[in-house]
Amino acid sequence: MDLLPNAAPLATRLRNTLVQYHSIGGSEWRVAKRTKDATVWRKPSEEFSGYLYKAQGVVEDVANRIVDHIRPGPYRLDWDSLMTTMDIMETFEENCCVMRYTTAGQLWNIIAPREFVDFSYTTSYEDGLLTCGVSLDYGEVRPNFVRGFNHPCGWFCVPLKDYPSHSLLTGYVQTELRGMLPQSAVDTAMSSTLANFYSDLKKALKT
């Protein structure tokens, strides 16, 4: 188990990594799934042996309200069907915290429930916001859970220039679920989970 990192340099590194992902050219991505709410692409991750996923869709709301529903806080558990518990373990200044959360089983429980401990950071980006995170080896692993690991991931939320009441939401996710899992099951679950994230979020924002 590691000690907690120094928040400020970790936040800067994390932001810089996400901005780098955001500048990857379109030719490097392959479409993994399309729905009416979002498109999901993927490319091999440079962090581990799985994929870096990119998801993008237009959400009808302002960036602040959308990000409030995504980042650690009271809204997320209400609408995100994958997340079953969430606790803020430590809070730093500058919109940083460490959270522990658990996820439900997926694919008829081929993927068992997982636990994650993530450092989370929210900051301004262009005219909108970026909320991003990375997993830490911190805290005891609870029984009945496999501890998963999120490599740098995050969500850019920027208002559309011609429709400021709508926002373009772009996410980058690379999750190492760990445990004994067929990679094909993980890839199927990730694409579907990201597409469902958009439809669930849109429903939550309308209520």
Automatic annotation (TrEMBL):
Q: Where on the tree of life does the source sit, at the highest rank?
A: Eukaryota
Biological-process GO terms, alphabetical: cholesterol import; cholesterol transport involved in cholesterol storage; intracellular cholesterol transport
Annotated GO CC locations: cytosol; endoplasmic reticulum
Question: Which residue stretches, if any, does this entry annotate as coiled coil?
Answer: none
This entry's Gene Ontology molecular function terms read: cholesterol binding; cholesterol transfer activity
**Domain START: start-end pairs:** 29-207
**Chain's gene name:** Stard4
Q: What protein does this entry describe?
A: STAR4 protein
Pfam families for the chain: START
